[in-house]
């Protein structure tokens, strides 16, 4: 096995969660997110319940809390936005620590923060226990439009290649004395971006030729098929099912 | 003629849609099991010719036949099974997330599944010495390793003829020698497009010189490369300090 080379979101392991077929996990996370989003924001206990559920999944999957926390950085822009709402919000106001805040704004901020955080944790757990290419196999199994799956697959394969190309272009620029210091240099960067786009487009054409040469006819062949048993489905769907039960109790 | 040739090209001419004529009547045939080098300077039409061999371009005039099957719209699927094209940049050829998936792509398109597919993939990777890398993403391999995997991707389709576009480009000396050893060990017809003349001499008994869109010379590699005037007339030359070794 090719050890040591993993996607940075993936945490290699052999837990029950790791072994579940990707289509089960994908559907479970999606259903869980729907339940979370559908929960009225006043039901604090329900959100606490969901958090406990995710904690349980993390424990079973042996994903350390610090690992999840670091990868939640993606949520930061939403957090900043959420903190701004009560300050700029309208309507009835209240004073917290000397700050005049909007009450509807506070509710909206809580709503965004709670739901986004739960959704991001669920996604991070999915990514930590499922390799990206395996997630795509799951997407294929769930009959997502094959064109979308193929685009995602190529992105996964060629992102590093394109980033490399971008780095080489930057080195070439800087070797000739260019340094991006202020706005006046934007045209140079823009031209580089254009060149990168054309290079990538041409690569796309060559890749297409290579695919045609090996018998591609518009459909990705199914090379590795992962089928799921009824037990695996019920294990995965236990997460949204329990979440739904929590919601029922809280209502 | 008694036996069927692996590749038979007759009077092939082609002009690009913009009117540039690239091929002016190419004639060549390659017997089964032969390893032939196609030499020529940049712009001689080598790549255009290669694109005709598996029907990516279709002949403007003349014909191409692989193991007796003419390259036509209705035979494309079969032709692409039989002609294994190895592109110059392995990043163009290796488009799947892992080495294993990539090697499986061709045979899976041909309908292989399950254990049989697995066996074909393992066998192809084994023949290029890359079996251990099966589960790695292509991006994490060295350039030489990627080129070897690219060869495996077409070997897995059990082609009648292997067509390599500049196989030695960008390889360091050791990777170049390793690839040569692999190519020599394969029992398959090979057409190697290159301007690396020593590599042609090392691997191919026979060479063709494509120049100005026609086959300008066809003969034993050793004799062609010894003919300095012939080489010079077609913008080919041996590297500095290189002499054709005595037999």
Structure description:
The complex is a heterodimer of chains A (251) and B (247). Chain A is mostly helical and 251 residues long. Helix content of chain A is 70%, strand content 3%. Chain A has two domains: 16-139 and 227-250, no CATH class; 145-213, no CATH class. Chain A has a two-stranded antiparallel ribbon with strand order 1-2. In chain A, helix 2 (22-38) packs antiparallel against helix 6, helix 2 (22-38) crosses helix 7 (132-141) and helix 7 runs antiparallel to helix 8. The model of chain A has no long low-confidence stretch (mean pLDDT 89). Chain B has 247 residues and is an alpha/beta fold. Chain B contains ten helices and ten strands. Chain B has a six-stranded mixed beta sheet, with helices on both faces. A four-stranded antiparallel beta sheet of chain B has the order 2-1-4-5, with helices on one face. In chain B, helix 4 (99-109) packs across helix 5 (114-127) and helix 5 (114-127) packs across helix 6. The A-B interface holds A 1-2, 5, 132-133, 136, 153-154, 156-158, 160-161, 203, 206-207, 209-217, 221-224 and B 54, 56, 77, 80-81, 83, 85, 87, 89, 91-93, 95-98, 101, 104-106, 108-110, 113, 117, 133-140, 153-154, 157. Chain A: This is Cobalt/nickel transport system permease protein.
Strand order of the largest sheet of chain A: 1-2
Shape of chain B: globular
What shape does the CA trace of chain A take? flat
Biggest interface in this structure? A-B, 29 and 36 residues
CATH class of chain B: Alpha Beta
CATH architectural arrangement of chain B: 3-Layer(aba) Sandwich
Largest sheet of chain A: 2 strands, antiparallel
Number of DSSP-assigned strands of chain A: 2
The portion of residues forming beta strands of chain A comes to under 5%
- Percent of sequence in beta strands of chain B: 15-25%
Q: List the domain count of chain B as a whole number.
A: 1
- Main structural class of chain B: alpha/beta
Structural class of chain A: mainly alpha
Mean pLDDT across residues of chain A: 89
Query: What is the arithmetic mean of pLDDT of chain B?
Result: 92
Q: Tell me about the largest β-sheet of chain B.
A: 6 strands, mixed
From the 3D structure, determine the CATH topology of chain B: Rossmann fold
Rounded radius of gyration of chain A (Å): 23 Å
Number of helices of chain A: 10
Radius of gyration of chain B: 18 Å
What level of helicity do the residues of chain B show?
A: 25-40%
């Amino acid at each position: 096995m090719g050890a040591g080379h993993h996607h940075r979101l993936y945490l290699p392991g052999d837990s029950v969660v790791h072994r579940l077929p990707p289509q089960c996990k994908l559907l479970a996370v999606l259903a869980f997110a729907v339940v979370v989003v559908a929960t009225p924001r006043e039901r604090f206990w329900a959100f606490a319940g969901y958090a406990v559920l995710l904690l349980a999944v993390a424990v079973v999957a042996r994903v350390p809390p610090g690992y999840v926390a670091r990868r939640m950085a993606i949520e930061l822009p939403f957090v900043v936005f959420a903190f701004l709402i009560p300050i700029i919000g309208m309507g009835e106001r209240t004073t917290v620590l000397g700050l005049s805040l909007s009450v509807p704004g506070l509710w909206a901020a809580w709503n965004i923060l709670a739901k986004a955080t739960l959704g991001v944790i669920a996604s991070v757990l999915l990514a930590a226990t499922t390799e990206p290419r395996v997630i795509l196999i799951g997407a294929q199994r769930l009959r997502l439009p094959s064109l979308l799956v193929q685009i995602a697959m190529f992105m996964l394969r060629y992102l590093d290649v394109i980033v490399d190309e971008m780095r080489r272009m930057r080195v070439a620029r800087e070797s000739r004395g260019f340094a991006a210091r202020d706005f006046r240099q934007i045209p140079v960067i823009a031209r580089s971006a254009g060149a990168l786009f054309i290079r990538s487009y041409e690569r796309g054409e060559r890749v297409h030729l290579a695919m045609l040469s090996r018998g591609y006819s518009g459909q990705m062949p199914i090379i590795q098929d992962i089928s799921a048993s009824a037990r695996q489905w019920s294990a995965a769907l236990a997460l949204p099912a329990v979440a739904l039960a929590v919601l029922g109790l809280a209502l | 003629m008694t036996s069927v040739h692996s590749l038979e090209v007759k009077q092939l001419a082609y002009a690009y849609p913009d009117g540039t004529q690239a091929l002016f009547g190419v004639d060549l045939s390659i017997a089964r099991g032969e390893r032939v080098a196609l030499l020529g300077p940049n712009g001689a039409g080598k790549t255009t010719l290669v694109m005709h061999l598996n029907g990516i371009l279709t002949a403007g005039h003349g014909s191409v036949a692989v193991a007796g099957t003419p390259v036509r719209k209705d035979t494309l699927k079969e032709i692409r099974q039989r002609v294994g094209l190895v592109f110059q940049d392995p990043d163009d050829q290796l488009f799947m997330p892992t080495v294993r998936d990539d090697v499986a792509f061709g045979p899976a398109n041909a309908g292989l599944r399950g254990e049989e597919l697995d066996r074909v993939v393992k066998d192809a990777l084994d023949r290029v010495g890359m079996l251990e890398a099966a589960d790695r993403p292509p991006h994490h391999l060295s350039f030489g390793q990627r080129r070897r995997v690219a060869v495996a991707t077409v070997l897995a389709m059990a082609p009648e003829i292997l067509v390599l576009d500049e196989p030695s480009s960008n390889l360091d000396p050791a990777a170049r020698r390793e690839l040569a050893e692999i190519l020599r060990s394969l029992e398959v017809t090979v057409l190697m497009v290159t301007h690396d003349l020593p590599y042609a001499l090392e691997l191919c008994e026979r060479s063709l010189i494509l120049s100005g869109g026609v086959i300008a010379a066809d003969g034993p590699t050793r004799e062609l490369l010894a003919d300095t005037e012939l080489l010079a007339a077609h913008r080919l030359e041996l590297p500095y300090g290189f002499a054709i070794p005595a037999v």
